[in-house]
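Onboarding guide, step 5: your first structure request.
Type a short instruction followed by the sequence, for example:

Predict the 3D structure of this protein.
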Amino acid sequence: MSSQETVLLSKEELHQLIKNKVMKAGLPEDHADEVANHLTYADSRAVHSHGSVRVEYYSERIAKGGSNTKPNFSFRKTGASTGIYEGDNAVGMVVAKNGMLEAIKMAKETGIGFVGMRQLGHCGTLSYFLRMAAAENMIAMSMCQSDPMAVPYGSAEPYFGTNPIGFAVPCAGRGPIIFDMATTVGAWGKILDARARNKAIPETWAVDKDGNPTTDPFAVGGLLAIAGPKGYGLMMMVDILCGSLLGVPFGKHVTSMYSDLTAGRDLGQIHLVINPDYFTSIDQFKNNVRQMVDEIHTLRPASGFAQVLVPGETSEKKALDYEKNGIPIVKEIYDYLISDDVHYNRYEGKSAFASDTLD
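The system replies with C-alpha cells like these:
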C-alpha cells in the first residue's frame, strides 16, 4: 500500500472548510464553529485519526437527524462537587466542552469537579477538553465509551469500545503535560486514517473476522487491547464509569456509530477536574512537575533515541511544524471539503468494520 496525495492547508483554511460543511449539513453556526475548532485542533497536531477524516460521517449523521441540532441542554448538580450534564444527543464536542466548563467551575469552588455527561455523540479527541482544565491551572482526567470494536482478552469477538482515557497536568514555564490514549493498541480513528491514506497497519493493532492478526486496515474485524489482559481490564473500567455509572447503555449494548444515523448515540463520558490549590500551592505543584520534566529530559536515551520525551511532546513538535509549513490533508478528504456535497450516503446501516467505510 502507498500513501495518497495530500494538500497543505493553514489552520484558518481548514477550520473554515469544516465549519462550512457541517453548517451545510444542518448544524447551527455556534455548534459548527466548535466542531471545526476541535477537528482542526486534532489535524494541526497530527492526530489525523480525529480530524477532518471524520467530517463526512458527522455530516451524514447531522443531515439525517442523528445529531440533535436544537438540543435542550441541562446541568444538574448532584452534590457539592458532582453533577450530570444532559446532552440531548447533540454533537459530542459541544456537550463535552460544556461539561468540562461545569467541572472546572466546581473544582474552583470545592477542589473537585466530577461531571458525567450522557446522551452525546462522538466527542473527538479527549486532549482538547483536558487542555481547557490545564489552562485554568487544574489537573484533569477524562474518559468516554464507544461502540463495541475491541475483543476482550481471550475472546474471538468484540464487546467493548476503544474506550479512551486521558490526563492533563499544568507545568511551570511550558505547556501542560497531556496524556491521551485509547485502551486499544490503536484507536479506531487510526484505522480510518490508514484507510484514507491507503497504508498498512502494524500487525499488533487488530484481528480479522476470524481472530487472526491483520495488517490490512480494510480487513479489521476487531481491535486489540493494550498489554493484553491489562488493557482489557482498563477498557472495562472505563465502560463501567461512563456507562453503568451514568445509566446509559454499556458494553455490547452501546449504540453503533453507523447502524442508524437517524437516531442519537446515547453515549456516556466523564470529566474529573482537581484543583491543586486544595492539596498544595499551585506554584509548588507546577514547579515540581517542571522539575520532573527537566530530569526526564536529562536521562540517558536508549539506542535509537535522541532524547527521552514526556507525553504530548511529539504532538507539540508536529504542531509547530504544521504551523510553519501547513497541515497535510489527504486530497480525497480535501476534495470532499471543497465540494458542494454534504455527504455521499456511505455510512447508513453499515457495520463498524465495513471495508468501504472511511470514517
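Each response can be followed by summary notes, for example: The chain has a mean pLDDT of 94.
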